[in-house]
Amino acid sequence: MTRSLGLMLIATSFAAAAQQGRPGPQANHAEHLKFSYERPWRGCGPVDQPESGITLTTVLTRCTKSYDAPVRPYIGVMFETGGTTAPVKVLWSGSKQTAWATRCLEGREDCDKATGGTINFSEAGLKGHLPTYELQFADGSVEKGTFTTHRDCHPDVQCW
After folding, report:
1. Same domain, 130 and 63
2. Phi, psi values for residue 140, rounded to 5°
3. Residue 37 neighbours by CB distance under 10 Å
4. In terms of residue numbers, what domain contains 80?
5. Is 133 in the same domain as 94?
6. Number of folded domains that form the chain
7. Is 11 exposed, middle or buried (0-12, 13-18, 19+ CB in 10 A)?
8. 154 falls within a domain
9. Are residue 50 and residue 5 in the same domain, yes or no?
10. What angle do CA 108, 112, 118 make, to 5 degrees?
């Protein structure tokens, strides 16, 4: 009886939040999501050139043996290694780079490509500063915040 009452109270509070326009725990409103966790990755490109990037998630992800995409929602970032200029600027301590970023939300088949923005690692680690991101998308939305860096799941990738 108490378990049923507890579940009913939880369902009622989520319904009330939805009626007031507040997102529940499964909401896909990008402006309410915080991509606070970063997982670096390395891989091989189509012509066996090394590739690297980061994945920003709303929850801390565990390392897996496969390279499958994380559970949505997430932002995937691939650092540019070729001669083209990608729309996102990446700031490192003393250097700049560009990257491609894609936001993949729950309940949507397609992912949104970032049209501009910055990922800033330059002050990370200094006096407690965390890396920051601010990414713009074609629909006018902006994702921004700080993130915590976690270890690389696949640090020893060999491209042949």
Report:
1. yes
2. 90, -5
3. 18
4. 33-149
5. yes
6. 2
7. exposed
8. no
9. no
10. 140
Q: Are 147 and 56 in contact (CB under 8 A)?
A: yes
68 part of a folded domain: yes
- Would the CA dihedral through 158, 39, 47, 88 be positive or negative? negative
Do 136 and 108 share a structural domain?
yes
pTM of the predicted model as reported, rounded to 2 decimal places? 0.75
Cα distance between residue 95 and residue 100, in whole Å: 17
**pLDDT single digits (tens) 83-142:** 678 999 999 988 899 999 999 999 889 999 999 999 999 987 777 889 999 999 999 999
- Among all chains, which residue has been given the structure tokens 């043996």? 65
Task: Give DSSP secondary structure letters for 92-123.
Answer: ETTEEEEEEEEEE-TT-SS-EEEEEEEEE-TT
